[in-house]
Give the backbone structure.
Amino acid sequence: MDALNREAATLPGLVRDRRFRMECAAIVSLAHRLTRRLRREDPLAGRVALKRPDLMYAAGAALRAWS
């Protein structure tokens, strides 16, 4: 997963369309957050889901990709 996340992290910088770049940045940040959460929590024992802070973090990543 880490190798795929590292590879995906380069994607927003390659996208020229601003809105699509922002969406890519948000998705990449959510993938990183989910990866960390899956390392801490057992998906077989309970639901591993995104929480409000994770979504706010993704929104911040999208805004940083604006430029």
In short: The helical segments are 2-9, 11-14, 18-40, 52-64.
